[in-house]
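Field reference: sequence -> structure
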Amino acid sequence: MKLLEVKNLKTHFKTLDGLVKAVDGITFDVEKGKILGIVGETGCGKSVTGLSIMRLLPSTAHVSGEILLNGEDLLKLPIKKMEKIRQKKISLIFQEPMVAFDPLYTIGQQFLEVLNQHENLSEDEAYERSIKMLELVEIPDPKKRFNEYPHEFSGGMIQRVMIALALLDDPQLVIADEPTTGLDVSIQAQIINLMADVQKKMRTSTILITHDMGVVAELADEVMVMYTGKIVERAPVKDIVESPLHPYTKGLIEAIPKLNTPKGEKLKPIPGMVPSPFDLPKGCKFYPRCPVRMDYCKDHEPPYVEVEPNRFISCWRFTDKEGGHSS
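Structure field:
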């Protein structure tokens, strides 16, 4: 069953240098209890997609399309109602958790403030729920840590606290924006395992935003690959990892370090750079970097089509010139 349906979402920013189409007409959904991974390089539009769903964008952003949560269009809600939906129905795990917490208040004070805003609980009930969530994310001695300040936690521990805070109100959807960025590799593995365990226990739907295809392969049920504000491929994670179709997806997977890589063998980075949003290619946006490009791709943007059941792609090698599936 679909919890979230995003239809033709466009998020454009007016700047002094021109219009930036950060998200440019994407359509996807998230099923209840499932994890959707959104992956791509910096600047592809994945974080803006998450912030668009939360409606946490500056006034320079123009958002259009539909964002349906249980059939209710979030873009049409008054801001006061949207504020009640945040944290209670949709919560966000920030990329930098230390910035997300107020350094002047203890972790416990910040947990209780969230519960006071969204739940009708007694002080004791709010305290017990907070401790329970800290235990869920495996914070040692949670009653002691409840009274400590954010700076007293390590990077890995404050990320665990951030996850606990995001789940405090038992939301229907969690948006995790680069939840392992900046952490030591061993700590990253711990956070990945923790998120997998917590998601299984709580059955919360999750949008996992990351540039790391390895993280997506570990956690996601389905993967959506973005490039210059558009979806270039979407499929179940097993299909993406074992048989990627789009050349950009293949490039992301080939760039993942592997344990069995022979000593001295170099990784295969994707050549070139993500194009400037003010100077995008006319046709396929990946054309300048594509190892299998055709002349036709240069001037014609491929449509986004379903080539197999639940498998979508935007590439002329899998699409005929009329926009249908190329068999």
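Note: The two ends are 30 Å apart (CA to CA).
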